[in-house]
């Protein structure tokens, strides 16, 4: 089985909603901007990325160095800083919302890809539960998750596509685990505390792999992987093939994903 490009992505704007503008989200936006530039050039301006970023946090001194912010950004909303910077210097018209992402408020007509770049279990759980019974949709969900030096990304269908197999998303694989997890609302007060939670490079490196999956879909129309696991200390990355054996290894019913 392969994950193929949604029909709506062939021409025009590809509507993307990004939840989170921190370490992972900031690195992600840089990659999305580069892909947008390439897609515009390759399609003679017939395809482009239309991005909206959600985040309610402001830049703190602990974010400097590890995230894509400068000293002058401290105290300003992260989403505003990053999107305005890209718009000003990149010549695009992306949007930001200084609020926490809530899937119930999302207009699916304006979103064809959701990207979660927040380590908040309740957000992932809310997305999965909100769309668990949705049918006949090709929209995708790309999720990033990080620990101190380990990380993963998963991309799959939000809803059940019509007349084709469904690639499982993050919620399908981890919904039992998510049901018992509690959000960590603590903020890092220093660079040392921040780096103990997520070491240098863990965000950027997993973003590169996740964006490579997205690029394969955008450029070549399909990918045979739906995610990967990364361990920075071991310099190791393991891709997740879209096959019954890999899906079954997560302890889920494989048959529900096959038409």
Shape: globular
- How far is the first residue's CA from the last residue's CA? 11 Å
Low-pLDDT segments = none
Q: What is the N-to-C succession of helices and strands? A: EEHEHEEHEEHHHEEEH
> Roughly how much helix do the residues carry, as a percent range?
25-40%
Oligomer: single chain
Number of strands: 10
CATH homologous superfamily? NAD(P)-binding Rossmann-like Domain
The CATH architecture name reads: 3-Layer(aba) Sandwich
Tally of structural domains? 1
CATH class: Alpha Beta
Strand order of the largest sheet: 4-3-2-5-6-7-9-10
Q: What radius of gyration results from the CA coordinates?
A: 18 Å
At the third CATH level, what is the topology name?
Answer: Rossmann fold
Secondary-structure-derived class? alpha/beta
Number of helices: 7
Main sheet overview:
8 strands, mixed
Structure, briefly:
The protein is of the alpha/beta class. It has helices at about 25-40, 80-90, 120-130, 170-180, 190-195, 200-220, 245-250; strands spanning about 5, 10-20, 45-55, 95, 115, 140-145, 150-155, 220-225, 225-230, 235-240.
Provide structural commentary.
This protein is α/β, with parallel strands linked by helices and 259 residues long. The protein has one domain: Rossmann fold. The chain is built from seven helices and ten strands. The chain has an eight-stranded mixed sheet, with helices on one face. It has a two-stranded antiparallel ribbon with strand order 1-8. β2, α1 and β3 form a beta-alpha-beta unit. The longest helix has 20 residues. It is globular, with a radius of gyration of 18 Å.
